[in-house]
Amino acid sequence: MTMPQAERERLVGKVFGELRRAEDLHAGFPADPLHALAIAAEELGELTQAVLQWTYEGGRIKRVETEAIQLAAMALQFVLNLPNYTPRPDGLQVGRGSSVREWAEEASNVSNS
After folding, report:
1. End-to-end CA distance of the chain
2. How far is CA 73 from the centre of its chain?
3. Do 87 and 33 touch, CB atoms closer than 8 A?
4. What is the CA 80 to chain-centroid distance, rounded?
5. 78 CB contacts (<8 Å, ≥6 apart)?
6. CA-based Rg of the chain, rounded to a whole angstrom?
7. Which residues have C-beta within 8 Å of that of residue 15, sequence separation ≥ 6?
């Protein structure tokens, strides 16, 4: 079943509205992708809870829509900020041929400098 165009436009408008609301409420978005992803993951958890409650506990579909819109907005925020992310602000990299022990030693050396 295809959603009518007007309903699609309403929902997309709500996603953009939520994105603007979040930008107004929170002065900045994390500069590293892991913390930015954590924001979207939190929204996914809230959507999961809403869907579970709607499916099994008589929860409201409106809450599912609200949480889905918030997740979509944070996913969009994540994508829009991709050019701004710094993978490791401190310059340390894990998994590029070094062991966790080597990484910990390197981190210790950097923090002691």
Report:
1. 62
2. 9
3. yes
4. 11
5. 33, 36, 37, 39, 40
6. 19
7. 69, 72, 73, 76
HSE (side-chain half, CA atoms, 13 Å) at 106: 11
pLDDT digits (tens, 9 = 90+) for 73-90: 999 999 999 998 877 656
Q: Which two tokens stand for residue 105?
A: 């030693």
Neighbours of 41 (CB within 10 A): 13
User: Hunting for tokens 């050019």 — which residue is that?
Assistant: 83
What is the chain's length? 113
Q: Is 108 exposed, middle or buried (0-12, 13-18, 19+ CB in 10 A)?
A: exposed
Are 55 and 106 within 8 A, CB to CB?
no
pLDDT tens digits, one per residue of 55-71: 999 999 999 999 999 99
